[in-house]
């Protein structure tokens, strides 16, 4: 009997190779036709869903959603992507491809399978570059500069169609033959396919089995048997019909509505750029400029602390980390430095936590792996007192510089050096007033103002958000035995950037002093010395806070220390569909911001959300809402 791995691991596909064609050992079936898999895909799925013609008709800012019930080698996806390149309109539009895979191929097997299609090489290389680690759950891959978005669910097909929120325009009903993999073709699966379809949704499948045709007809599809490809005599195609067919929705009705974002930190700038890349004009407003507040530090570590128990909170952190590593790759060796990151077992409590964590979980080595003290010292270039967990895909960012680049886009209008002092709804639009007497109107508004966000939310209740002061210290590079990677423990230390390296940050719950203090510098020095006694060079003997520069920022956290992203809950009419909140990222803003910007952009554009229902629920604003208590 197969034994499932510990969470969040998932069993990879076991393959046998015959003349370059992969065959599933588990199901005893090939992944694609031995004759010509690519041509079969084009014939069965592209031609019989009329994709070239339908792609060309998508309006500006619109999107087209293809859903598939077996990702396999990704050949169908690459064929659809290639067709999109050839037939999509010249204006901005997005292809969404939603697929599920219970037994995903390893990176090596995927590369081997796709190597036989030279004409797809460029697309295959980009897919392989972004291919996620083999862990259960949802992975969003942003490809072709945002023109193509792949939502890949690793896990059971029932779980996928239950937890994902989308409406398909076309279905690729692939997967192994019904006689070899009957679970994929059960009636309840077909009913879920119907639930994720709208009138006019088409489907195609290589199979012509009678019970499959009858089940699809019972779900409301008008089915037709037609000639199959190659040796296969027949195949099926269909369309979902209704008594009063509605037009296929390829773009949200709100597409021309104006969107304003208040706050130009990493979260606000990432969201603005995300929307602009999809073809949506945005106004980005900030009291200072891009990357001036909590995102204004010279260096920041890409870091999360994964929970001992693999629950929704841990899954969200892992999903954010994996997405962020792919997102920042676009700025590798510019503003993103993937040096690797060591999560040090810096005391007995953390060592015990890591021991229990490793016992209860199974993560791919591409995410992290345990290292000894000797290995940790070699990887970081600093003698350490213990081992820890090594995250090879992490590193450090220059967040302020990244914000400036994210905000630089033709569809992003910036209103900087304008502090917002009032936000009110009037005649169906939002009016945004600033202290320098500027007035901006927008149909929809997103508040991304960190710890200042509660002051801008115009509701009668209050939101459980709080500010926590954090001070970083700039240590002279000459005072350090310079690390070559990020080291995290009770403090973090980055490799030097020019003449200094950033360490910190303090965690000051009841201190609202916006200026750096000598006491906080000394606290950073002492804590770093406790964590890494060998990190200071001989020139650092007299290093004290009076000699250091640094910076103070205020993290915004929620009562449950989980971020918030979504429509504002006003306590009376429920969620407002025109006012959104993106904040509460705490000290992990660089990790969470890209994923939450992707998720919120999905919501704002009416496109398939990148998060499953269980993770989306964790981000809801209603959990923060409290009615005002009137004290007499």
Automatic annotation (TrEMBL):
Name the catalysed reactions.
5-aminomethyl-2-thiouridine(34) in tRNA + S-adenosyl-L-methionine = 5-methylaminomethyl-2-thiouridine(34) in tRNA + S-adenosyl-L-homocysteine + H(+)
Q: Name one GO cellular component term.
A: cytoplasm
User: Which parts of this chain are annotated as the region tRNA (mnm(5)s(2)U34)-methyltransferase?
Assistant: 1-241
Q: Name one GO biological process term.
A: tRNA wobble base modification
According to the UniProt entry, its GO molecular function terms are:
flavin adenine dinucleotide binding; oxidoreductase activity, acting on the CH-NH group of donors; tRNA (5-methylaminomethyl-2-thiouridylate)(34)-methyltransferase activity
Organism domain of life: Bacteria
Q: Which UniProt keywords apply?
A: Cytoplasm, FAD, Flavoprotein, Methyltransferase, Multifunctional enzyme, Oxidoreductase, S-adenosyl-L-methionine, Transferase, tRNA processing
Subcellular localization:
Cytoplasm
Reported cofactor(s): FAD
Indicate the segments annotated as coiled coil, or none if absent: none
The cross-references to SUPFAM superfamilies, in alphabetical order and at most eight, read: FAD/NAD(P)-binding domain (SSF51905)
Q: Start and end of every FAD dependent oxidoreductase domain?
A: 259-603
Q: Where is the MnmC-like methyltransferase domain?
A: 118-239
Under Enzyme Commission nomenclature, its number is: 2.1.1.61, 1.5.-.-
Chain intervals for the UniProt region annotation (FAD-dependent cmnm(5)s(2)U34 oxidoreductase): 262-632
- Please explain the role this protein plays, according to its UniProt record: Catalyzes the last two steps in the biosynthesis of 5-methylaminomethyl-2-thiouridine (mnm(5)s(2)U) at the wobble position (U34) in tRNA. Catalyzes the FAD-dependent demodification of cmnm(5)s(2)U34 to nm(5)s(2)U34, followed by the transfer of a methyl group from S-adenosyl-L-methionine to nm(5)s(2)U34, to form mnm(5)s(2)U34.
PANTHER family in the record, alphabetically?
SARCOSINE DEHYDROGENASE-RELATED (PTHR13847), TRNA 5-METHYLAMINOMETHYL-2-THIOURIDINE BIOSYNTHESIS BIFUNCTIONAL PROTEIN MNMC (PTHR13847:SF283)
- Tell me the protein family, please: In the C-terminal section; belongs to the DAO family.
Its recorded name reads: tRNA 5-methylaminomethyl-2-thiouridine biosynthesis bifunctional protein MnmC
């Amino acid at each position: 009997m197969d034994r499932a791995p510990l969470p969040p691991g998932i069993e990879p596909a076991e393959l046998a190779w015959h003349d370059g064609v992969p065959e599933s050992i588990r199901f005893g079936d090939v992944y694609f036709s031995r004759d010509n898999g690519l041509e079969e895909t084009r014939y069965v799925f592209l031609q019989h869903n009329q994709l070239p013609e339908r792609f060309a008709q998508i309006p500006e800012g619109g999107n087209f959603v293809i859903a598939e019930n077996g990702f396999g080698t990704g050949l169908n996806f690459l064929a659809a992507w290639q067709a999109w390149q050839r037939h999509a309109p010249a204006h901005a539009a997005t292809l969404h491809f939603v697929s599920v895979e219970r037994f995903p191929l390893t990176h090596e097997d995927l590369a081997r399978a796709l190597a036989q299609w030279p004409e797809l090489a460029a697309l295959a290389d980009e897919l392989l570059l972004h291919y996620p680690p083999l862990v259960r759950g949802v992975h969003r891959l942003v490809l072709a500069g945002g023109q193509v978005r792949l939502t890949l669910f690793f896990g059971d097909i029932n779980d996928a169609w239950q937890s994902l929120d989308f409406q398909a325009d076309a279905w690729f009903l692939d997967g192994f033959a019904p006689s070899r993999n009957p679970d994929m073709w059960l009636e309840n699966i077909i009913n879920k396919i119907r639930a994720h379809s709208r009138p006019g949704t088409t489907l195609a499948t290589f199979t012509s089995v009678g019970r499959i045709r009858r089940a699809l007809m019972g779900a409301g599809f008008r089915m037709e048997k037609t000639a199959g490809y190659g040796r296969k005599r027949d195949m099926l195609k269909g369309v979902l019909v209704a008594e009063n067919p509605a037009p296929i929705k390829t773009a949200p009705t709100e597409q021309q509505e104006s969107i304003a974002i208040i706050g130009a930190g990493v979260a606000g700038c990432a969201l603005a750029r995300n929307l602009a890349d999809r073809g949506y004009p945005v106004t980005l407003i900030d009291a200072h400029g891009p990357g001036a507040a909590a995102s204004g530090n010279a260096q920041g570590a890409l870091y999360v602390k994964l929970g001992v128990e693999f629950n929704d909170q841990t899954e969200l952190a892992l999903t954010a980390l994996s997405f962020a590593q792919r997102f920042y790759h676009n700025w590798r060796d510019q503003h993103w430095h993937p040096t690797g990151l060591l999560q040090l077992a810096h005391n007995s409590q953390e060592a015990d936590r890591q021991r229990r964590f490793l016992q209860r979980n199974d993560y791919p080595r591409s995410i992290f792996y345990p290292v000894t003290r000797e290995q940790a010292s070699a990887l970081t270039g600093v003698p350490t007192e213990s081992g820890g967990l090594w995250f090879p895909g992490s590193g450090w960012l220059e967040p302020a510089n990244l914000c400036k680049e994210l905000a630089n886009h033709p569809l992003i209008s910036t209103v900087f050096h304008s502090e917002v002092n009032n936000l009110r709804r009037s005649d169906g639009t939002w009016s945004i007033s600033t202290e320098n007497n500027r007035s901006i109107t927008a149909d929809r508004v997103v508040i991304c103002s960190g710890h200042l966000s509660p002051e801008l939310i115009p509701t009668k209740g209050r939101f459980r958000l709080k500010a926590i002061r954090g001070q970083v210290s700039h240590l002279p590079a000459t005072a350090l035995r310079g690390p070559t990677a990020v080291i995290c423990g009770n403090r973090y230390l980055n490799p030097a950037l020019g003449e200094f390296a950033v360490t910190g940050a303090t965690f000051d719950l009841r201190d609202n002093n916006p200026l750096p203090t000598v006491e906080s510098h000394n606290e950073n020095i002492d804590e770093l010395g406790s964590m890494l006694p060998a990190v200071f060079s001989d020139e650092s003997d007299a290093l004290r806070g009076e000699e250091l520069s640094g910076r103070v920022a205020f993290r915004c956290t929620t009562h449950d220390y989980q971020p918030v992203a979504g429509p504002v809950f006003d306590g009376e009419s429920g969620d407002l569909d025109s006012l959104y909140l993106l904040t509460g990222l705490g000290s992990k803003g660089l990790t969470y911001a890209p994923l939450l910007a992707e998720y919120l952009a999905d919501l704002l554009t009416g496109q398939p959300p990148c998060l499953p229902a269980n993770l989306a629920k964790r981000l809801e604003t209603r959990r923060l809402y409290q009615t005002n208590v009137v004290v007499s």
